[in-house]
Each structure stands twice: as C-alpha cells, then as structure tokens.
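ATP-binding cassette domain-containing protein
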Amino acid sequence: MAPILATHELTKRFGDVLAVDDLTFSVAPGEIFGFLGGNGAGKTTTLRMVLDIIRPTSGRIEVMGQAPDHRNASSIGFLPEERGLYSKMSAIDTIVYFARLKDMDARPAREYGMELLGRFDLADRATSKIGDMSKGMAQKVQLATALVNRPPLLLLDEPFSGLDPVNQGLLEEEILRASREGAAVIFSTHVMQHAERLCDRLLLLKRGSKRFEGTLAEARAQLPGRIETIAKPGIEQVEGVAKATRRDEPAHEGWHHYDLVLEPGRNAGDVLEACTARSVPLRRFDEAQPSLHEVFVRLVGDEEIER
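Structure:
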C-alpha cells in the first residue's frame, strides 16, 4: 500500500540552526503516527514543510505521490498549534468557509459541519460568534474545520494542548474515527499518555534528528526487561538477570520482594525457565513493561516532556 505521506532525507536550516536533520519516514492510510519530541525538537517545522508553508533546505516530501503544493492542499486537514479563527464569524459559517477553501460545496459542508458540531456538543452554538466562545469551544470548532472535508491526511500539531480531560477524550475519539475511515493521522505531542493509547507507530525526535521509529512494543524493547518478584534468596544468580534489587520490607518470613533488570536480549520466559531449572521458589513473577515516558527519557534525554 502506497504511503499517504513520505519524507526522504528532509533537512531544514534557519541560518546556523539545524531545525530538521536528514529525516526520513512514511505514514500509510489508516495509520495513527505519533510525532514525539520536546520543545524545539523540529516537529512543527516538519509539519509546516509538509504543508508547503516553508520549503526544505534539502530532501523530498511526497503527499499522495506528489510534492506538496496547491494541488493537494485540499487533501490535508491541519490543526495548528497556534489556534486562530475569525472572531466575528459564527461557528458553522467558519466551518463552511474553510470547507469552501478546500473545494467543497457549501451545502454538504454545512450538513457535515452541523454533524461535527453535534458530536462536539456544540450544536446549540452553531450560530454563536467565535469571539463569544470559550477557548475550548473555539478549539473544537477549529478541529471541525480540519475534519469537514474528510481529508486523507490529517496533521494535528499539539492538538491536546489546552483541552480539559473530557475534551481530550473527545479528540482521541475523533483521531480513532478518522483512522477507521482510512485517513493517515499524524499528531505531534510531548504528552506521552496520548501517544501510548493511540499510536500504531511512533517517531521520536531530538534536535531535529530521528532517535527512534517503530511500534510501541519496539520502543519498549529499547530498554532492558524488568520483572517484579516475590522469591527466596538465590534469584540474584539466575541466568539472564543483570541486576536484582531486594526491597527493604520482607514479603513474608524467608520471602522477599525483588526488582529484576534483565540482560540484553533476555525476556521473562528465559528467567522463569532458569528459576525452574535452579528450583528457585517463587510466589510472584510479574513482567513490568517500561512506559513510553521512560523510553522517551532514555532515548531523547533532557527534552521537556509531560507525563
């Protein structure tokens, strides 16, 4: 299946500042792709190049097989990090206006715009002016402008910023809906919990350079495996265990809590088999998967992130 979006050795310099460094990735139809990095990592710069707002210093971008320009602009839905709508226009007129810019007829735009406002619990505010709405309401209207023409490529730049938990859940539902309908969805964020719940694949950026690309399982595999156990002494010498830390409080007489870090290439099954072979008594044996936050800190380092 041909990708909706592909970049090839994409590089962008602003004078002496290297904002994006030799970045190559692709996103398939129906895929939710997390574009993760701290502040200044190059996420927004990359999205602006995809939108043809700024041009690369070198490298190529393909949107549905073509270089980005006015011919495929209507195929992209974009929610910018910096929100901005016309304050004196009504919600529904704003949605229709943006739909018309994307070559959509007014009548179907108004019909689907009203459907979107209904899903966003804003049907009764359809004729309200943007300037009279709360920040969260206006942000949902702006999301509707990105979705109204059902674009095959949806770019969301820090979309969860400023939304309360209820509206964050609503946005997650819309991302999943767009994916089910076949759109390629790319969203940038430095909030790991959303990426952990939604993404089929992830790309981790630091200072414009790719540090990792792959699935969540592949990201977690970048860190050594860990196991939480209740066992008797002797588990420290089991094959496959790189480090065993015994907690201060005993679990029971003769039994102790151990936190195990596994050797590279080893998994929980290897260690359990070794415990059986050595007749090490076990009362608890739980694999502890690293969070995406932990993976990010290990691979990206001191970038600013949120849990």
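Residues 165 and 182 are 26 Å apart (CA to CA).
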